[in-house]
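quick one before i forget lol
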Amino acid sequence: MVDTVHNPDQYMYDLKHILTSGKKKIGILIGAGAPVSINVATDGTWKSLIPDIAGLTEIVVANLNKTEQSVYANIKNDVGSNNIELILSRIRSLSEVIGNTKIHGFDATGFEGLSKKICSEIKNVVSKQLPDGENPFSNLISWINGINREHAVEVFTTNYDLLLEEALERTRTPYFDGFSGSRIAFFDPSTISTNNLPARWVRLWKLHGSINWSKNSNGEITRSAGSDDGTMVYPSHIKYDQTQAAPFSALFERLKNFLLEPDSLLLTAGFSFADAHITNKLDECLAANGSSALIAFQYKNLDEETPALKIASRRPNMSVYCKNGATINGVSAPWKLGEPPSKNWHAIRGEYWHNESFLLGDFLKFTKFLAGSRGGKSVAIVELVNAVAEALAEKEHEGNKDDA
């Protein structure tokens, strides 16, 4: 019996053709792993532009005062984890229920202040700018701009930072994020639902909010310079409740509507699928619309990507591409290279394969692969050049026969 394998060449060949077509409805869901792929160290070491959850936790705790650190440590012991998401959930829960009763030396007011301090530190950590020159976000925008499209690319992100906005504005790429106006932009859900802007306008949907969102005196969320406390949906137990209110409800509805459109394709990068309310929404939509497809590019090995594989195992229209293998059509199997699908494919293979590993779970490699597909140059033109070369060679051969 022959063991099942997946050939990465076959799937990347097909994906290249999809990426170079301007007719496909394509969306991209970007998670917290994206800015981690940008190295800002200058001494040969690695320092991510914005760290992962473990790095974020370390920075936040270091910036608390000694009293706050002591309370944080006690809450960490209660929770049994140093995951800042779980700890922030517990802190917010205590601030809502204990009143004047003290726990670990803090009453409700103390825990509310600690919650705000942690959220403020999170905001400080993610308030970063893109480095000069080429970077993953500039490569993403390069691919978007490199193709004449019938449908706008829709970018969904759970990140609070302004890296996508910066990349779009550096290239003068028009985009719409649900807000209208200039001085203090207001949220316009009706424009999101109709989605009738020109296709060259990128749609940018920030599912958890942004560091430049604020609440005005009427409780409405606006977009400005971000000088006030943001309304980001910080990781905690109240995340689900907050996403049911405007503008988050409209943004999640847009994600749902995109996946319910015929023949839509959603690519995910830097997203762990551990975010339950987003993952459940994706699962629901894939079940409802068999003509939609989702391809998840994951950084780790198959056995380490359990949340993504859980959906892909029961949804044949979801594929998960990991470092050592993939789940495709519900079947998990290791990668195994096959015959090159076209001439000169070895050069293209290097974009996604090295040392027996699939590379595109790294956001840096993923966006380079996208940028290499702009304008159809990676596959279509290579094949055209090959065809012309063969035709010229054949013609020359026939001429030599005639001379003889």
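fyi The two ends are 55 Å apart (CA to CA).
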